[in-house]
Amino acid sequence: MIRVVLPAHLRGLAHVAGEVELEIKGPATQRSVVDALEASYPMLRGTIRDHVTQQRRPFLRFFACEEDLSHESPDAPLPDAVVSGKEPLLIVGAIAGG
Amino acid sequence: MSGVRVLVGTRKGAFILTSDGKRERWEVSGPHFAGWEMYHLKGSPADPNRLYASQCSGWFGQIIQRSDDGGKTWTQPGTPPGERTTPEGAPKGESNKFVYDTSSETGKALTTHQFYDGTQHPWEFKRVWHLEPSLSDPDTVYAGVEDAALFRSKDGGKSWQELSGLRGHGTGPKWQPGAGGMCLHTIVLDPSNPQRMFVAISAAGAFRTDDAGKTWRPINRGLKSQYIPDPEAEVGHCVHRIAMHRSRPGVLFMQKHWDVMRSDNAGDLWQEISGNLPTDFGFVVDVHAHEPETVYVVPIKSDGEHFPPDGKLRVYRSRSGGNEWEALTKGLPQRDCYVNVLRDAMAVDSLDECGVYFGTTGGQVYCSPDAGDNWAPIVRDLPAVLSVEVQTLP
Question: What ipTM describes this predicted complex?
């Protein structure tokens, strides 16, 4: 079970209060986690990565285990602690004012 | 007794203001979508309980919201929260998918437009500025977007298709962004002719279709813009807003960057009607619900100083279709006022005594229940107001 922490605005869109827990079939990667997240919460499609290019939106970052994973390959395995559910994958909005 | 519902989009959420026909006491609902930029909300003329809203964010992109109960509840069209299936199958989550049409059958090559520095720049979708529901079908709605293009949904906002004849008709490489971006911000539907509609783009100008959006032509003859190389160019004009009275769809009023203009032939030719205005820069223009020659603008000092002249917030009304304007000041601040009124932030109701409404970047929404003679704030302290629309309810 993968734990995902969403930014507050996306929790509002998805109508969830806390962390999201996802079952991942196959290797746990950024891509497979976001695929599973969008399958469970289709209202989030287009908000984390572009509908067409599937690129991460520029003001969003992926953190886990005190590391910035944003520039890892989307198909790179996530850290073991994330895969085991010990640590969450954090989807974080860049602090850019507003 | 009939009443009004005022839909207000702000920098940090949406608000719904309701009153009876007297328009003295108001109920305020909101913030809806707190923290999000709400560029525009508008109700369907065919079903007043059907509302569409453009919600966006620099972080999370564009969201379309729809209400089927007059704003009490909202959903992203086609994606009910918590439901894995809908009558049409699994939710696709595509109500926020705005993709420029590049198909060989219906689309045009995704050309470039002029950027701020004069170089060519590719089209990139950023947000929906304006939603214009069909006059007759609650499920059909048009979206004016940045970078400038026109989209249409025929399924209540679940999916969107570009009307690519506009962006692709040939002058696209000469379009350029205004200070707010290169946006299609105005969509005016002709109530007497479903084939005809008008749009306006900053900074490209006004365009008209006479075949329901398949083909378009610029309608900018008579406009003069000193800030472009050829002041009378076919395109490149920074049109801020166009308004029409439904009883005379061939008569259009325009607030251009500078200049208030009028056309009596559906945009074929424009003439200036700025007359005695203290400044002819501004953003909004609207027409009285029952008097097609009564027009409203809010003069703003200049493009460099986006606030009213002399610190006095004044709506100007012409009862003669332009040129002769009177200042409307009762109830509006007449000293130390330095707010702006943005292009989508004025509207009128259609009660017997026409109400006029506008919102400011200072967070005030003003109402005049008597066609502009007297004004009072409905609310004073909202986030900066981006848009104001009014529904007149039975």
Answer: 0.93
Interface check for B97 against chain A (CB to CB < 8 A): the answer is: yes
> What are the structural domains of chain A?
2-93 (3.10.20.30)
Cβ contact A42–B79 (<8 Å): yes
Is A7–B76 a contact, with Cβ atoms under 8 angstroms apart?
no
**Residue of B60, B73, B98, B158 to mutate for A, most A C-beta atoms under 10 A:** B60
Q: What are the structure tokens assigned to B46, written together?
A: 């065919």
The tokens describing B170, both together, are 């040939």
Q: What is the pLDDT of residues B25-46, one digit of tens each?
A: 999 999 999 999 999 999 999 9
Residues 31-50 of chain A with CB under 8 A from chain B are: 38, 42-48, 50
- Beta-strand ranges (E) seen in A6-65 are 20-22, 60-64
How confident is residue B92, by pLDDT bands cut at 50, 70 and 90? Answer: confident
User: For residues A23 and A41, what is the distance between their CA atoms, to the nearest angstrom?
Assistant: 13
Quick one: pLDDT band at residue B105, thresholds 50, 70, 90? low
User: What is the C-alpha to C-alpha distance for residues B236 and A48, in angstroms, rounded to an integer?
Assistant: 35
Question: Measured between CB atoms, does B122 come within 8 Å of chain A?
Answer: no
Q: How far separated are the first and last CA of chain A, in Å rounded?
A: 34
How high is the pLDDT of residue A96? 59
Q: What is the average per-residue pLDDT within B278-306?
A: 97
| Chain B residues whose beta carbon lies within 8 Å of the beta carbon of residue A46 | 61-62, 93-94, 96-97
* Share in percent of chain A as helix, strand, coil (round to 5): 25, 25, 50
Say if B59 is an interface residue toward chain A (CB within 8 Å). yes
| pLDDT tens digits, one per residue of B354-372 | 999 999 999 999 999 999 9
Q: Do A47 and B60 touch (CB under 8 A)?
A: yes
Tokens of B257: 């960057």
Domains of chain B, start order: 3-393 (2.130.10.10)
Question: In chain B, how long is the greatest CA-to-CA distance?
Answer: 60
Residue B93: CB atoms within 10 A of its CB come to 21
- B117-130 per-position pLDDT tens digit: 999 999 999 999 99
